[in-house]
Amino acid sequence: MNEMTPPKTERTAALKGLGSARKRVEDARFTQGKGNYVDDIKLPGMLFGDFVRSPYAHARIKSIDAEKAKALPGVIAVLTAADLAPLKLHWMPTLAGDVQMVLADGKVLFQGQEVAFVVAENRYIAADAVELVEVDYEELPVVVDPFKAEAPDAPVLREDLAGKSEGAHGPRRHHNHIFTWEQGDRDATEKVLASADVVAEEMVYYHRTHPCPLETCGCVASMDKVNGKLTVWGTFQAPHAVRTVASLISGIAEHNIRIISPDIGGGFGNKVGVYPGYICSIVASIVTGVPVKWVEDRMENLMATAFARDYWMKGKISATKDGRITGLWCHVTADHGAFDACADPTKFPAGFFNICTGSYDIPVAYLAVDGVYTNKAPGGVAYRCSFRVTEAAYFIERMIEVLAIRLGMDSAELRAKNFIRKDQFPYHSALGWEYDSGDYHTAWDKALKAVDYEGLRREQAQRLEDFKAGKTRKLIGIGLTHFTEIVGAGPVKNCDILGLGMFDSCEIRIHPTGSAIARLGTISQGQGHATTFAQILASEIGIPADDITVEEGDTDTAPYGLGTYGSRSTPVAGAATAMAGRKIRAKAQMIAAYLLEVHDDDVEWDIDRFAVKGAPERFKTMKEIAFAAYNQAIPGIEPGLEAVSYYDPPNMTYPFGAYICVMEIDVDTGEHEIRQFYALDDCGTRINPMIIEGQVHGGATEGYAIAMGQEIAYDEMGNVKTATLMDFFLPTAWETPHYTTDFTVTPSPHHPIGAKGVGESPNVGSVPAFSNAVHDAFRAFGLTQTHMPHDHWRIWRTAHELGLHG
Amino acid sequence: MIPAPFDYHRPDTVEAAVKLMADLGDSARVIAGGHSLIPLMKMRMTDIAHLVDLQKIGALKGIAIDGDTVTIGAMTTQQELIGNAALAGAAPIIREAALQIADPQVRYVGTIGGNVANGDPGNDMPGLMQCLDATYHLQGPDGAREIKARDFYEAAYFTARADDEILTAISFQAPAGGQAYVKQKRKTGDYATAAASVIIAKSDGNCSAASIAMTNLSDTPVWCEAAGQALAGSPLGEADVENAVRAMLAVINPQDDNKGPAEFKRHTAAVILRRAIERAASRA
C-alpha cells in the first residue's frame, strides 16, 4: 500500500524546480570565504611564475639579459621566446584564426606584453627577479588610432604577416588590416538610402573597456613525470576547449591532459581565451617537473588580458516621413589591438554583430566590418554579452534616437512603430538571423506604463522650462532601450570555435537511494549553475533539487562541452540537461511499468512519480524506481539509471527586454544621478526568479559603469592610462543605482523548456539606456550624438559646447 | 604588486621612532595608515629599505580639546575623526571632509597625520588644515618644532618636514562661523576633481572673516588668501562671491589628467567654491 499522496502543489513545491526562487547552494561557501579559487591551490614544491612586461607599446627587442635574475637565490629559470622556440611554443594560435606571441619574439606590440617568464621558489623572489631582467628596447613608431592604422605609410605592426594578403577571414588590403566581413545587401540598401524621405547618419563609438573580473586570470600547471599526465587548474570559462587546444599545440595526448576550473571569481568573457601565462606555466612545469603557479595582478589584468568593445560604428538609417524605417547601413572600424584574439565562433569574425537591426522590422540592411591592428592589447571578448551583441544593441538604439531627432518624433513611438510584430515570428532579419520568438509590443507597453512615461515627459518639459528660466541647473534625461539579444551559440552547422562544434552536454547518474549527480560541459563563474541546473532536472525527473549535485569544470569527469560565455549555458547546456533528464524518465517509465505490472504506455508521469493511468493510487515514485534500477533484475532493461545528452541547438535564442533610465544631470559639474532604472526582461521560461534578478542587477551595474565612466584609455604613445581601479571605474554600492525589475514570458519555441538565457541581457540593454538618458537630457539643446563614457568632464564638455555655461 | 624587500620597525615611543629615523638615514620612511605608501611600494615606484611603523605609539593617537584649542594626534584615524562628537562640535568641517575620504574600510586605517604629511596634492586634509590655519607639530633629532600648514607644502610630495622628522600632532583654534567642505569626485575612493574648504564668520549680516582653501587643483593645496579677503566685510552678494571665485582662479593651477582637462577643472573649481561659500554662509 502506498502512503497517502500529498497534493500536487505540495509535491511540486518540494522539488524546488522550475520557477522556484531557490537560494543559491553556492553561497554557503562563497559568503563564508570558503570558495576554492585557483590562487587557493597549493601543491608541494610549487614554484611561481611572473612576467617581465614591455613598458613600450611598440619596440624592437635588441637583447634580453637574464643573468642577474638567474643569479638571484631562489630563481629557477627565466624563459624567453628563444627558449620556447625549439618547442614551437613561442607563438600560439588565437581563437580568431590569428597567431599571438607567447613571449615577445623580436619585438613588442603593446604595453604590458609578456617578454620573459621568471620562475622562482616563491612569488616574492619571482617579483624581485623580474626587476633584474635587463631588456634593451629600440622604440618604434606607435599606432593607437585605428583610422590611421591603414594609412599607406603606417608602421608595420605584424612583421610575421609580411606578404600575407589572405587572412583567416579573407583578403587583407593593408599590412595592418585583418579582415573585412560583409553581411546583407549593399546595392539594395544604398538604393533605398538614396531615395529615402529621411536619412539619419552618425558615428557611434563604443569605447574600449575591460571585463575586469574580481578574480584575475591565473593557473597552476602540474606535470607528473611518472605517469606523464599534465593537470592544469585555471580560470577557464571553457575547460574542454582548453584541453583540446593544449593537446594540439603541445603535442601531449589529450587523455594525458586534465583541465580543472575550480571556483571562478567572475569571467565576463575575460577568461575565455588562452593567455601566455598558461602556456609558460605549463612549459615551466614540464621543464622543472614540479607544479608552477601563475596569477596575474590587477594591473596586468587590465593591461594585458582581453579587453572588450572598441568599435567605431558609422551608421545610416532611412525612414519614411511618418517614421517607418526603410533601411540600415553600417560600417564598423574594429580596433583589435596587436593580435586578433577575439573570442568569436570561427565563421563570425565580428561575432553576431549582424543582430544590429535590433528589435525592428527593417526590410533591407548592409553591414561591413573592417578589423585593424593597433599597438594595444589583444582581446575583443564578449564582456557579459553574446559575441559583439552589446555593440550592435548600442548602435541600433543610438541610431533609433538619432532618427527620432531627425524626424522630430518621440523615440518611444518610433520604436513601437517599427517593432517586429508578434505574428511575424519566426522572423528572418535582413542580415541573416531567424528570430525564434518575441512579443515586443507587449513588453514595451508594459514598460512605458510602469514608469508613467507620459508623466516623465511632462516633468522633463517642466524642468526644461525651469532651466531656461534660470530656476535650476539640472536637466532630466529619459533613456529608452528595447534590445534583442542573440545567445546560446550555437548550432554546430554554423558555430564552432577552432573547429569544435558549439554543442553542450549533461551526464546524469541517479543513485540507488534516489539522489543524483549531474555533470555538465559548462562552468559557472558565479551564475549559480549548481542551483539552476538542479532545478531544471528536478522538474524533469521528479527528484528534489536539494538531492541533486551539479558538478562542472573537471575534464576528466565532465562530458565534453564548449563552456560558459555568450549566455549559452542555459540555452545549450540547460537544454542538454533537460534532454538527459528525459532519457532518465523514459527508462524510469519502463521500470515503473514493470514494477506496477502494466504496459509501458499504461503509466503516466505525475510530478515525482509514474502512476497507472486511471488509477493514480497505484504509482512508483522516482525514489522507488531508482532503487529498483539497482536491485531488480528487470527483463530487457539494463541495471542502473544514467543518461548523457549532447545537445546541438537548432537555433539561437533571442531574449529581449525594455529598459528605461531616468537621470538627473548637473550641467555645471557634469555629475549625474540615476533617479530610476526600470528593467523588463523576457528570457522565456524563468528557471529561478531570484537568480534572474541578481543577474539583472549585476549586469546593469556593469552597464552603468561602462556607460558612465569605465574605459581602457591609451595616450598617443600607447601607454595605458587606466590600469588601476583608481581610474578604471568599478561602481561600489554607493554609486550603484537602484533597479526595478520586471518581466514578460515568451518561451523559446525550440528550447526543451523554453528558456532563453538572461545573464547578459542587462549589460546589453542597460548601456544604451544609460547613454540614451544622457543624450536625451541635451536633446532640446541640439545634441544628436556624443561618445561614452559619460564621465563628469565629458558631460560637462557637452554642456559647454552647447553653450549652457553662459 | 609585490614590493621590494624591506625591513620593518615598530617602535613604541616617539623618541624611539625619531632615533630610528636618525640611525637609518635616507633609506627609512615612517608609515602611518599606509594607503599612499604601500601602493607605491607594491608598484615599485619607490625604494624604501626600512619602514618605521607608528601604529604602536599611543602618544600619537587621540583628540584633545582644551578651550578653543583642538589638538589631534597624527595617528588618529579618519574614522576616529568622524566618530568624535566633541570634534564635530568644535570643527564640524573635519567630519564633513573625512566622510568624503575614500571608503569606510580605508578610513578605519588611514590617519590624519599620513594624510597631511605625505604631501599628495590629492589628499583632502592639507587644504582643510590651511583653511583652519592649523599648526603641525614635528619632532626630530634636534627636538620639537611647529610649522603652519600654510607654510608646509612646497610641491607634490615635497614638504617642509625634514626626512628625519616625524609629524606628531596637528592643532588649531576652533573656528568661528559656518564651515563647508564640498568635493567633486568621480566615485567612492577617488581623489577630488575639485574640492573647497570654506569658513565664513558673519557679524551683523555681513561676512566678517573668511578663509578658503582648494584641493587637488595645483601641485600643493592652495590657500586662497585674496579670495577670503574678497568676502571679508562684504554682504556676500553675487558680485562678492564672484570676486572670491576670480581670486581663487588666479592662484590655482590644475593639470590635465584622467579626471579631465584643466579647463574643466577650473570651471568645476568655481562651481564647487560657489557652493561651498553658499553652504558655509548658510551655516554661519
TrEMBL record, chain A:
Name of the protein: Carbon monoxide dehydrogenase large chain
Keyword Lyase: no
MF GO annotations: anaerobic carbon-monoxide dehydrogenase activity; carbon-monoxide oxygenase activity; copper ion binding; iron ion binding; molybdenum ion binding
Organism the protein comes from: Rhizobium subbaraonis
Classification via InterPro entries: Ald_Oxase/Xan_DH_a/b, Ald_Oxase/Xan_DH_a/b_sf, Ald_Oxase/xanthine_DH-like, AldOxase/xan_DH_MoCoBD1, AldOxase/xan_DH_MoCoBD2, AldOxase/xan_DH_Mopterin-bd_sf, CO_Mo_DH_lsu
The reaction(s) this protein catalyses: CO + a quinone + H2O = a quinol + CO2
Subunit structure: Dimer of heterotrimers. Each heterotrimer consists of a large, a medium and a small subunit.
Entry's EC annotation: 1.2.5.3
TrEMBL record, chain B:
PROSITE patterns: FAD_PCMH (PS51387)
InterPro entries given in the database record: CO_DH_flav_C, CO_DH_flav_C_dom_sf, Diverse_Substr_Oxidored, FAD-bd_PCMH, FAD-bd_PCMH-like_sf, FAD-bd_PCMH_sub1, FAD-bd_PCMH_sub2, Mopterin_DH_FAD-bd
A molecular-function term among this protein's GO annotations: oxidoreductase activity
A Pfam family of this chain: FAD_binding_5
Swiss-Prot/TrEMBL keywords: FAD, Flavoprotein, Oxidoreductase
Record keyword Transport present: no
FAD-binding PCMH-type domain location: 1-177
Coiled coil: none
Protein's UniProt name: Carbon monoxide dehydrogenase medium subunit
Species, as recorded: Rhizobium subbaraonis
